[in-house]
Recover the amino acids of this structure.
């Protein structure tokens, strides 16, 4: 069914509000984000903005959902590049896609992973599913590598402490997939390593120690792939 002109205008305005919010976050951080500040930038009244977002909490949630979705779309697209012929190449592509998106979208990345926004209450039922998408793309690659024999898993990547095993099993129940626990664990360890580097890089904490950050990242990804047994 075709949308009405009013619905189209409403969608355009909602996007403008989100873009203005991102601009304010880039300039002043999340502490500078408020309905009044956005309304002032858009030359609207604060009350008018509530027609589009019922609260600042709802607006922040929409921004987070967008950012997680864009990150997952980027990772998913790069992981499916037909020129990639091995799982090791696909994991490398995922790592570079994650880092590239973060460096190109630092405001969105810090919204997702930076300091908590005072007063914000995250509705996890909305934000967690898109947040897990990138993780599951990585886990799927590891799962296929295990099935194809491309990976020779060390014993410690197959036998887990009971509490960790339960956490990994719980992931299969939440998202309804049948990915093996070792693949989920490998995806988690990959995420921790890649994410840790990106956080330090974005806040210029690696640069005083390692001059060539890009070479360092590529070397770490290569070592991780070898250490987990990918051929």
């Amino acid at each position: 069914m075709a949308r009405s002109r009013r619905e189209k205008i409403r969608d355009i305005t909602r996007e403008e509000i989100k873009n203005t919010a991102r601009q304010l976050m880039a300039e002043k951080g999340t502490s500078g984000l408020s309905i009044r500040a956005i309304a002032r930038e858009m030359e609207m009244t604060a009350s008018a903005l509530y027609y589009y977002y019922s609260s600042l909490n709802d607006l922040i949630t929409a921004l987070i959902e967008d950012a997680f979705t864009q990150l997952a779309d980027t990772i998913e697209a790069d992981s499916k590049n037909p020129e990639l012929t091995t799982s090791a190449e696909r994991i490398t592509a995922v790592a570079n896609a994650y880092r590239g998106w973060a460096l190109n979208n630092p405001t969105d990345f810090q919204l997702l992973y930076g300091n908590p926004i005072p007063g914000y209450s995250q509705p996890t039922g909305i934000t967690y599913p898109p947040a897990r998408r990138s993780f599951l793309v990585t886990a799927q690659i590891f799962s296929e590598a295990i099935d194809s024999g491309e990976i020779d898993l060390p014993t410690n990547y197959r036998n887990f402490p009971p509490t960790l095993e339960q956490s990994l099993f719980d992931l299969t129940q939440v998202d309804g997939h049948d990915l093996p626990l070792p693949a989920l664990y490998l995806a988690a360890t990959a995420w921790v390593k890649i994410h840790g580097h990106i956080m330090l890089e974005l806040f210029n904490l690696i640069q005083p120690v390692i001059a060539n950050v890009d070479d360092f990242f590529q070397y770490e990804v290569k070592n991780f792939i070898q250490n987990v047994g990918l051929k």
